[in-house]
């Protein structure tokens, strides 16, 4: 009798027709076609100018509004069509990015060309600088989430960590008349919320999502109360912290377009970018990182090889508080030189979305934060050129981008296996 192998008995699963790449490809084709028809019809024959310096009359890339709107929309359609080809899977991220950029540029060609004379230009340098400014607190918040959730602790309390860091940064910075003391105060504020998160979640096994919501409300109520009782009556004494200085990196700051955005800024900009690199290398290239990921994926197995699971979780959650506290201090020491009630305005939750969108990776979180920061800056730019789009819609644009980005990943991302699951040593 001829032996029959197991492989011969297995019936191959039929290939799925509508794979992820093809669904996104079809979506890009529809979006690009709609942009070509809609934006192309609404755009005018005037040039849409993308200025490359801070001078509106300086060097610029000029594109005929209607031609540009149609051409960039066709680029999106072409990228979508390429995603329908099976071999395009390896180029998925690049093609998807090209398609999205095409739709955005098509939209901008319409908006800029249709603006009033004197406003029909887009300051690329200012947009890039504003994108990084808006993205910075999201970067710090998302990195705090990476440290917690890679260790198996859900961090819904990012909003509270940022808000308390902003409050403590303003308070101590004002009292000491020092921005550097204010940064230390911000770290203390972030660590305070993190300590409560670690204590209740790790020691008392409280539901981590509910606990995060409660800590956010605690931070909101506590900072609001002290603001009304102390800061508001005597703002010159308790709510006028000095801002950190702006530094320029020699030579690099003179690079066109990128220089003013990446190499001219406060210590928060350089700290944020450095932390992305440091945490990424530490998480994936060091013993600490291996232990952290093992604790977040399979704490029982980690415990059997001698890793102190609970201690490592405590340490990482407190480190997350340090990072989030710096991000909170940015609001009051690097952005505006005063504290306001609920000034974080939901950015902690956008940072949480950036964490998910970035696949629980430091570099992914950075690019996700830049995406949301661009949406925030874009809404302000469109309002400044008197866009016909309703102002209420422009105000919700960053949050709408957050919802669409995360909704598009439903079922396609996986959190660390032990994320949110308390560990009880056997």
Task: Kindly estimate the percentage of residues that lie in beta strands according to DSSP.
Answer: under 5%
Which CATH first-tier class of the largest domain would you pick? Answer: Mainly Alpha
Q: What's the overall average pLDDT, rounded?
A: 89
Query: What is the helix/strand order?
Result: HHEEHHEHHHHHEHEHHHHHHHH
Shape field:
globular
How many separate structural domains? 2
Uncertain spans, ≥5 residues at pLDDT below 50?
A: 6-14
**Residues in helices, as a percent range:** 55-70%
Strand order within the widest beta sheet? 2-1-3
| Intertermini distance | 52 Å
Kindly name the structural category. Answer: mainly alpha
**Which topology of the largest domain does CATH recognise?**
ABC transporter involved in vitamin B12 uptake, BtuC
- Oligomeric form of this entry? single chain
Can you summarize the main beta sheet? 3 strands, mixed
Number of strands: 5
The CATH architecture of the largest domain can be given as Orthogonal Bundle
Number of helices: 18
Computed CA radius of gyration, to the nearest angstrom: 24 Å
